[in-house]
Amino acid sequence: MDLKLELKEKLIDQLNLEEVKPEDIKDDEPLFGEGLGLDSIDALEIIVILDNNYNIKIGNPEEARDIFHSINTLATYIEANQK
Amino acid sequence: MSFIAAPHIISPLGNSVHENFERALVGQSALRLHSDHPFAPVDIPFGIITDHERSEGWTKLESLCLQSCQQSLAQLKDTSGKWLLIFCTTKGDIDRLASGLSEEVKPQYLVQKVAKELPIDIDTEVVSNACISGLLGVIMAHDYVSTGVYDHVLVLGGDLFSDFTYKGFESFMALSAQACKPFDANRDGLSLGEAVVSVVVSDKKEIFSQVDCQVLGGASANDANHISGPSRTGEGLYRSIQKTWKQTGLSAEEVDAVSAHGTATRYNDDMESIAFHRAGLAAKPINSMKGYFGHTLGAAGLLELVMSMESMRAGIFLSSLGCEAPGTTEEINVVTENTPMEIHTLLKTTSGFGGCNAAAIIQKIQ
Amino acid sequence: MSQQVCHIKWNADGLIVDGQQADLLPHEGGLKELLAAYYKSLGLNYPKFHKMDNLSKLGVLGVAMLSAQYDLSAYADDAIAMHFQNASASLDTDWVHQQNINEGKAASPANFVYTLPNIVLGEIAIRNKWYGENLFVVADSFDLERWMKTNQVLFDQNKAEAVLGGWVEVLEEKFELELYFVVKQ
Predict the structure, then answer these.
(1) Which of B75, B216, C92, C175 has the greatest number of beta carbons closer than 10 A?
(2) Inter-axis angle of helices B163-171 and C91-102, to 10 degrees?
(3) pLDDT under 50 in chain B at which residues?
(4) Is-annotated flag, keyword Ribosomal protein (chain B) (predicted)?
(5) Domain limits of chain A?
């Protein structure tokens, strides 16, 4: 499956975004604040998703800020760092 | 108005208020590495009570709670009247959950078990309101005795270091790898500790063999903003302080010192600085005691209130151990050295998950 | 003195709002699906709802039903105290966190944040923008008289114009909401 679509489905499932469909999330749209409206708990949960699914460890939520900007930035980071 | 006295503290620093205060005065901290603990990671400091007595058939928390209540009651001259025991805790004996859901894991089971062993008839109540529980218990106690619902309230705060809370705070990335640095510019998270504390609140001064302080009143307020993220405007903490002025008829000018929550997470301490600034308290001496004990969760507010009572008696405001160079969004007067001073009126504040905040004022009896 | 102006009782036997009894909404599955059915029927449009644990959902839905029945908007944003009680604290959610630990899995931060019973108060406060007094008490069963006694203390101490709360209990599939709105006289 396309990594970006897979990410969208994982976010919807793990972050309980029940009223959102994968096609509602634009690849370059901000995930936090405006856009999808995720919050600090979601950020921590995405860190767990990356660890469980892609074996990627992020040690501090501050460094996650740029990586978690959008589906595009997240996918780029996973492709570069997946083990 | 109500009197507050007959305190007891059991923490890694000691088994009395006196021991705890004397050790804090010389800069000792409960936070240390534990190489032989069943689940604490060896490379992160925690404040764990390792030296304690435990009765047959009683858990560590049950034993310490009973001992602390007995120590408080032993300081009274007269125990007649209508009593309430308020147990303030976030998670009680939560590590019992590892072996499944049971009645024993519930905090009301613990407090009822303790109450049965006490030499007085006493009603029980459990306040479980995140990290404001301990202070909220004192505020409720004050309100109960002020309105005559009870004659005396024994307020008990207790939370232990558990695998449950450790794993949760770890997933929150809220733990510092070192001993926490409250209000420090380089703070990077909290440290977990444990304590069991008790105190008696009563409107009858004559029951105490020694009494130095009274509770003037307090209040709680919600941030109405986020369940875990501190408010960017410090709204709930600010409002709880404003409501405390209303409850007590005092204002910021009349406060000599503030015992803050100061968990040493970036956002919490910034939030407190904003609320204190808004409340006109930025210039007042402010401390956090998390560097001495770590964050003792539901017990924290009560622990720090009792330590503050001892500070008022001794005339020394404790340094915010761990804070070298204060640095928060708003500049506040964080005290980084033990400071001899007359503390007549003290504001105690706490904040917790669920957006809850509480504030209360205690005053020295002339 | 005080007066009870609205009362909701909701459990597996049905839903009673101010004496009007109704069957539970039809739903597939368990408590989660039942609460989702009420979310939909109330037309809440509050996506955060889906992130909550069942205890918070039950409280938030109950308050939404109550405020549809009785206008709470006349109260100042800090005039309503929230005073809730239950028997199982947050054990329903604690158990999920504990099972992760027992099975050696990573803890979920989104789950851990609900492992405190007073989070339901926070969720109600956030949704309604209420800054009032907070009190969560854990007790074996709901003693209405005692709950009212504590509310009277809040009134006598001039801490609230009204108290919203009561009993909000969830453990596994069992649930019980007994919600009151009490006004100071």
Answers:
(1) C92
(2) 90
(3) none
(4) no
(5) 3-81
A80-to-A67, B116, B362, C161 alpha-carbon distances in Å: 11, 62, 57, 58
Domain that holds residue C50: 2-184
B168 touches chain A (CB under 8 A): no
Question: Can you tell me the distance from the alpha carbon of B90 to that of B297, in angstroms, rounded to the nearest whole number?
Answer: 7
- The set of chains that have 3 or more CB pairs under 8 A with B is A, C
How close is the nearest chain C Cα to the Cα of A39, in Å?
10
Among B191, B207, B223, the domain-final residue is B207
pLDDT digits (tens, 9 = 90+) for B247-274: 999 999 999 999 999 999 999 999 999 9
- Clarify whether residues B106 and B203 are in a common domain: yes
**Distance between CA B31 and CA B197 in Å, rounded?**
18
Q: What tokens does B120 get?
A: 């007085």
Taking CB atoms and an 8 Å cutoff, what residues of chain A touch C51?
A: 15-16, 41
Contact B364, B307 (CB under 8 A): no
What is the total count of domains within chain C? Answer: 1
In CATH, what number is assigned to the domain containing residue C36?
3.40.47.10
Q: Are residues B186 and B247 in the same domain?
A: no
Interface list for C 83-122 with B (CB within 8 A): 87-89, 91, 94-95, 97-98, 100-102, 106-109, 112-113, 115-119, 121-122
The whole-number mean pLDDT for each consecutive block of 10 residues of chain C, a chain of 185 residues, reads 88 95 94 97 94 98 95 96 98 98 95 98 98 98 97 98 98 97 95
Please check whether residues B79 and B226 belong to one and the same domain. Answer: no
- The residue among B149, B175, B207 that closes a domain is B207
CA distance C19 to chain B (A): 30
**Contact, B221 vs B275, CB < 8 A?**
no
Of C47, C51, C106, the CB nearest to A51: C106
Mark yes or no for CB contact A41/B228 under 8 Å.
yes
Six-digit token pair at B289?
A: 């005691």
* B127 contacts in chain C (CB < 8 Å): 135-137
Decide: B190 and B289 in contact? Cβ < 8 Å: no
Q: Do the beta carbons of residue C97 and residue C107 sit within 8 Å?
A: yes
The pLDDT tens digits for A2-14 are 999 999 999 999 9
Q: Give the CATH fold of the A3-81 domain.
A: 1.10.1200
Give the pLDDT confidence of A36-53 residue by residue, as tens digits.
889 999 999 999 999 999
Query: Do residues B118 and B243 share a domain?
Result: no
Q: Which residues, in sequence order, are bridge partners of residue B76?
A: B208
Q: Do B171 and C109 touch (CB under 8 A)?
A: yes
Helices (H), B147-289: 163-171, 235-248, 266-278
Indicate whether B49 and B193 sit together in one domain: yes
Q: Which helix (H) or strand (E) holds C135?
A: strand C134-138
Same domain, B200 and B224: no
Chain C interface includes B90 (CB < 8 A): yes
Best of B112, B140, B143, B222 to substitute, by most chain C Cβ atoms within 10 angstroms, is B222
Q: How many CB pairs under 8 A join A and B?
A: 16
Distance from A20 to chain C by nearest Cα, in Å? 9
Q: Which residues pair with C135 in a beta bridge?
A: C83
The verdict on B88 and B13 lying in the same domain is yes
Q: Which domain holds residue B24?
A: 2-207
At A62 the pLDDT is 76
How many other CB atoms are there within 10 angstroms of residue B353's CB atom? 25
